[in-house]
Amino acid sequence: MVRDGSVGSPAGPTGAPPAGTAPRGRLTRRQHAQLRRLAVYAVTLAFAGYLVVSIDWPELQGAFFDPGIFQEQFPEILTIAARNTLIFTFFAFTGGLAIGLVLALMRLSSIGPYRWFAIVYIEIFRGIPALVTLIAVGYVLPIALGVRIPGEYGPGAVGLSVVAGAYMAETIRAGIEAVPKGQMEAARSLGMGRGLAMATIIIPQAFRIVIPPLTNELVLLVKDTSLLFVLGTTTQTEELTKFARDAAGESFNGTPLIAAACVYLLITIPLTYLARRLERQAGRAR
Amino acid sequence: MSVPAIEIVSLHKRFGRLEVLRGIDLAVAQGEVVCVIGPSGSGKSTLLRCVNRLEEPTSGRILIEGEDICDPDCDLDRVRTRIGMVFQQFNLFPHLDVLGNLTVAQRRVLRRSRADAEAKARRVLERVGLLDKIDEYPARLSGGQQQRVAIARALAMDPDMMLFDEATSALDPELVGEVLAVMRDLAEEGMTMMVVTHEMGFAERVADRVVFMDDGVVVEQGPPARVLRHPTHERTRRFLTLVEER
Asked: What's the CATH superfamily of A69-285?
């Protein structure tokens, strides 16, 4: 957009004005864009320069990038911590998917109580922090109802499933609603009942639509496993963040946290990349 | 005289305050081909969709081979297997290949064996001239081919009658002919058909009876030559003039 009046000095940063240029003292559209880009580069460079100069590098390296301590984290950070993170993620995703599918169908049901239950569930567990839900599953449930979820991974996996289910329900519902109405009509006109039509015609198509957003859901779940420390995992079931916090506490050094961050990225970046690819494929399919 | 394939008795349908069907009485005999014509918004598609209760009638009765499908005790899913339906937008199942489209309801609804269902699928595909497309996915077919597959999918259920809801309206002009040819073959083989269409040529050549609808009522009906050539009602005349000018 070219504004009225001159922007910047007449002797602008650009050389000879291109052909068909505006009168002297005004910038052409292209010059204006160039100037703005230059300004962004300048600010970025200045900020980077400020960081380089003002950060106490030796201090930082000592506190967070100690090569010896970094090496000490291996192989346990992979064989125990990352493994547990992935195990929790797997159970939570599978459980969340099952809960999410049931909730999505209830949400779309013509039977009032089903719909109300789904709405209340979804609003509650999307509305309160995942940390609170985990505490509720781990501590409130056993005291209030005497329900103690068995298994070393049980409480954590169930807690995360409960939260993931609420988010996935909305994603899956959107997917089901995105399937054209004519699909249900065609299925019903062939004599299929509502349930059969859902199972064989609608849901398979809905899942194709929701695979990309569900992959994003998976990335969020990987990171949410870091909240499991509140459930007091044992050394055999501790996940990345718990592992790194303990190691940082023992060594009075932040390096284990950096190591854990690297491992998280090792997991999440390929997943994000996969999600983007699936999204592109889904975009092409129709 | 045998019982009519379809009998519609004083059918009313309203969407909110809009009354789309205002008392329709119509019967389609077994083996008869009835074409329903009329301006858009006249209620002809709604009428057709009421016949297999994709649209819930507000009042009135619909009898399929004598069975009242609005009766709460009626097993609607079973009745629907006897009524083939072809949609304007084809509505093939995009996640299944052609064979899958043709066998899923045979297997899951009619409980046919895989071998029986596949043999049937081949026979009906042969009939619509698309046996070579049996492994394709719908997205890879032209509109005309998709609609022929959709007809084959309905035929695979061995229906007693077929409903066509503007089956050629979504097609490119050069693809209309292949679909109409399949429909004409069906009619000649004695299939009971109720066809909502804008193809006056098809109606004239193939229909046993043409029904002209306007504003939610049947204005006039009769043999195609009479209704299309010598309409008695002013509204029919006006509609036909507009269609011819196109």
From this structure: MetI-like (1.10.3720.10)
